[in-house]
Write a structure and sequence with these properties.
Oligomer: single chain
Protein name: LRP2-binding protein
InterPro entries: LRP2-binding, Sel1-like, TPR-like_helical_dom_sf
Number of strands: 0
Shape: elongated
Helix content: 55-70%
Strand content: under 5%
Radius of gyration: 23 Å
Largest sheet: none
Number of helices: 18
Distance between the termini: 33 Å
Order of helices and strands: HHHHHHHHHHHHHHHHHH
GO cellular component, one term: cytoplasm
Main location: cytoplasm
Organism: Hypsibius exemplaris
């Protein structure tokens, strides 16, 4: 990934003191509060996977590597039905029709179609049927039967030369079932084992003779990488930051904006990354990952990048990204939104897969940066009244974070003064 899209050049090293605003460590999937069934938008979004239906498209977005995309070239299997209509119903038995009914939330007729097609071992139909059984859509909920059906879908997809999409989706769903204790007792080790099956298949292999853009890549495979990263970061009592960092980096290379942000922040705090990396390399990494996540529209990345610039006395970059973050969360009329409205707006935006707490802290951080810049008259004109308003807004949202940011900033500026 080129650094040309980043606004500022970064000099100096990040302060190693950690602030409790690492984003995305506890989202809807990891807590089991989302229904992971639905269609995905073109822009890869973890939260959209969780709140919607089975993933149906490969990743189509910017990559960190020298190539612009890495898509699976596997042949797509025909899903035409062996029967034109269901007996007694004027409903065509095709996978496309089933998906249309599913998207329209007409689950009962959709399930009837998927059930019929699944009898002929159609992998896509087997997958949809399994998930509907698991979540009780169009049929009474049967967690155990749904989980067993997902495993059969996985086994069938492995034996069939077809698009790996449903194979990886099955891994994701089976892992999630074990994580949440649906259809089987809760087993985190088993969840990790299933996520690894898909996550490893979409890892970039530089030693392979297959070109980067032609190696297998699926949205669900990348999602499994993100879930593994979250799992290792939240493992208690001892998080495995190195594994978390490496999986976020893999997912970032596959186009996950959230993962770009996470790698940038983890590098900034020295968690899981190479401790022997020189100062320049560290800053290049922070610039590349945080910068690309911010350019990609991630509000948490914008706010963190703004504070990072402020620490390094790069006031123009700090002002630009803090302003961008606040402008992004404004109400539809351009007026200041309530905190709840702002967070809700961000959570609904593409490429903002961070949890509510992290988005809230990001908004507070952006206000804090603007307050400081207006207070000292850096870039923005000196305006004590406006600085006070911004500082009050930041404190009202998260007073504890404001205290932490103040200490970090004072410490960094003291170091600069001594130099």
């Amino acid at each position: 990934m080129s650094s040309e899209n980043s606004t500022a050049n970064y000099n100096g090293s990040p302060n190693s003191e950690k602030i409790n605003h690492l984003a995305g460590t506890e989202d809807a999937v990891m807590q089991g509060n989302a229904n992971p069934v639905g269609e995905l938008s073109r822009s890869f979004s973890v939260s959209r996977v969780l709140a919607a239906s089975p993933v149906t498209s490969d990743l189509k977005r910017s990559k960190m590597s020298r190539t612009s995309s890495r898509m699976s070239n596997t042949s797509r299997r025909s899903t035409a039905s062996v029967m034109p209509f269901l007996s007694g119903y004027a409903i065509p038995v095709t996978i496309e029709r089933g998906k249309e009914l599913y998207a329209a939330k007409k689950f009962r007729p959709a399930y009837t179609i998927f059930d019929k097609l699944a009898q002929s071992k159609d992998v896509a139909a087997m997958y949809y049927k399994s998930v509907m059984l698991l979540d009780g859509l169009g049929i009474p909920e049967s967690n155990r039967e749904g989980l067993l059906a997902l495993k059969k879908t996985y086994e069938k997809s492995v034996r069939t030369a077809c698009d790996p999409k449903y194979q990886h989706l099955s891994c994701y769903q089976i892992g999630l079932a074990y994580f949440r204790g649906m259809g089987a007792r809760q087993d985190l080790n088993e969840a990790v084992r299933w996520w690894l099956k898909a996550a490893n298949e979409v890892k970039y292999d530089p030693s392979s003779q297959i070109a980067f853009e032609n190696q297998i890549n699926t949205e669900s495979g990348t999602l499994c990488q993100i879930l593994l990263a979250k799992h290792y970061a939240t493992r208690r009592p001892n998080p495995d930051w190195e594994k978390s960092y490496n999986w976020y980096k893999e997912a970032a290379q596959n186009g996950s904006i959230e993962s770009l942000f996470q790698v940038g922040v983890l590098t900034w705090y020295g968690l899981g990354c190479d401790p022997a990396a020189d100062e320049k390399k560290t800053h290049e990494t922070i610039q590349t990952f945080l910068g690309q996540a911010a350019v990609g529209g991630n509000v948490c990345a914008m706010a963190n990048l703004a504070f990072y610039c402020l620490q390094k006395q790069l006031q123009e970059g700090a002002f630009l990204w803090a302003t961008k973050a606040i402008e992004t969360v404004k109400g539809p009329t351009g007026k200041k939104a309530t905190l709840a409205e702002a967070v809700k707006k961000v959570m609904a935006m593409p490429n903002n897969d961070n949890d509510v707490e992290s988005v809230t802290k990001a908004i507070s951080m952006a206000y804090f940066v603007l307050a400081h810049l207006h207070n000292v008259g850096a870039v923005a004109s000196e305006d004590k009244e406006k600085a006070g308003e911004f500082f009050e807004a930041a404190s009202d949202i998260d007073l504890g974070l404001v205290h932490s940011l103040t200490k970090l900033l004072e410490s960094e500026l003291a170091i600069k003064h001594d130099e």
